[in-house]
NAD(P)-binding domain-containing protein
Amino acid sequence: TPHTDDKTPVTLLGLGAMGTALARAWLAAGHSATVWNRTPARADALAAEGARTADSAAAAVAAGPLVVVCLLDDASVGEVLADADLAGKDVVNLTTCTPGQARTRAAWARERGARYLDGGIMAVPPMIGQPEAGGYVFYSGSCELFDRHREVLAVPAGTAYAGADPGSAALHDVALLSAMYGMFAGVTHAFALIRREDVDPAEFAGLLADWLTAMIPMVHGVAAELGVGGESEEDASSLAMQVAGTPTFLDTARQQGVSPELLTPYFELMRRCLAERTGEGAPRSMVDLLLG
Ligand code: FVH
């Protein structure tokens, strides 16, 4: 789509896998895009697709009002923006960071005269620019900035405003991604158990995906336990029963020659929770136990 003047021009700093996908989505939607990357060659393909390339991050920032940053981490954001004049700019930082880093970065940007939105991307690059893929981005910080750029931000993926606290998007992002890593830990262990056996990994993957999908609604049970009154629904899988079952899992791992390292921390938390529940005022949920 050729770019049209009524569409907000986008400056994009960082052309890794995600930054490139974002730039491509905006170009495809008819936005003009000025891009910059530390390794200039990574901009070549986008230039061929119509992006303008800038010689420096500062020049890219100067090129337009809306500056999107998608770099490796918060330290690289500080480095890249160090020499840029941010006065009057709308900065949207899609770099994964901690809530604390997001709050500090928001104050840092404000001190330089910029409006600031932090974002946490709930998508992988192939989902960008593909609305049916269900990817979205948590945004938090300036509500005014979010409203002003709502349409342009909705081009690469869906949008969800997580509040005025600039750290809120990062908190939601990291919480969801942490759950994902817990799931991947289980998946890794499960594949290790069958690795040396005559089990087709592709067939097993289908079983695994179906089983995990069936278990997903359990997250609502955790929420119910944490809610007012703290009571869960019918305890169909008691903690005592689960703790009694842990030797089966550990013995199976041993028999299969698989390290139990991905399971033992969770099993230890289950054991502690069961042991401490009996006391008056003791934490009822494993979640509260993690808070120390
Ligand atoms: N890709 C993904 O699946 C995830 C999905 C969820 C969100 N993340 C976050 O997005 C940020 C960027 O991730 P990425 O996938 O684009 O990462 P890379 O392909 O590794 O590209 C990294 C870019 O950062 C540049 N860079 C790194 N360090 C510096 C620095 N000190 N100064 C300037 N630029 C730096 C790097 O430049 P170059 O190596 O090409 O020169 C890339 O442009 C990230 O926060 C994910 O957590 C992605």
